[in-house]
Design brief:
Low-confidence stretches: none
Helix content: 40-55%
Oligomer: single chain
Order of helices and strands: HHHH
Number of helices: 4
Mean pLDDT: 82
Radius of gyration: 18 Å
Structural class: mainly alpha
């Protein structure tokens, strides 16, 4: 039995997802099913949450900001 799911995502991400599904010649739903199957079959890797955020902060961050808070420097990857 299939269930309809509505997701709210950034338009750019949806465009990338649609383009990927076209390249693989499958529907977006089949692509999402494939990606979730792969994600669920992988063992849980205890990753450092900061490593997942590297490069996520954009904008002006001064050297003083990095010196003041070492967590920010780690997130920025510097």
């Amino acid at each position: 039995m299939k269930v309809r799911l509505t997701l709210t995502m950034d338009a750019k991400r949806v465009a990338k997802l649609r383009a990927l599904s076209r390249r693989r010649r499958m529907t977006v739903a089949a692509l999402v099913e494939d990606l979730t199957d792969r994600a669920l079959s992988e063992p849980d890797v205890d990753m450092d949450w900061v490593d997942g955020l590297k490069g996520a902060i954009t904008g002006k961050v001064s050297k003083a900001d990095l010196a003041r808070d070492p967590r920010l420097a780690k997130i920025m990857g510097r």
